[in-house]
Amino acid sequence: MRRRVSSGLELELVRRHLDDLLGLLAAPTKISETGPLPAVDLREADDYYVVSVNVPGVPASEIVIRLRGRELRVAGRKLPDRDQPDRRHCHHMERGFGPFAVEILLPGPVQPTTTRATLSAGVLEITLPKLSERRDRVHTIVVSDEEP
User: Fold this and answer.
1) What angle is formed at CA 57 by the lines to CA 124 and CA 54, rounded to 5 degrees?
2) pLDDT for 117
3) What are the boundaries of each domain within the chain?
């Protein structure tokens, strides 16, 4: 019969791991440094991608969409409710306001000139047509001998 002698270091290590795990589980939901994070969906069809972003209460004039390569950035600012100038008596508030930004990496290259964005019922829908020819294709270049 073998007996293992321990100084208690293993138990201390397990306790630290459990504390870290419980800390992660008890942490509040992720909030962006810039403001509330809107929910985002990315769908793919045969010829295009569709990005849907929940932005209730955000006017179209406060939304900026930028596309660089395959990186799509949607930024904006949700204005505070005008009918509630005095927030001292608010008992519970989850609908935040202020600036926000989300970045989405698209699965493939898109055609920026024919991209459309519409805002309807608090949902921003961005339709991004796929490029028919991929720019990252590998091309073989033939080397010829040069005779002096």
Assistant:
1) 35
2) 94
3) 31-84+93-129
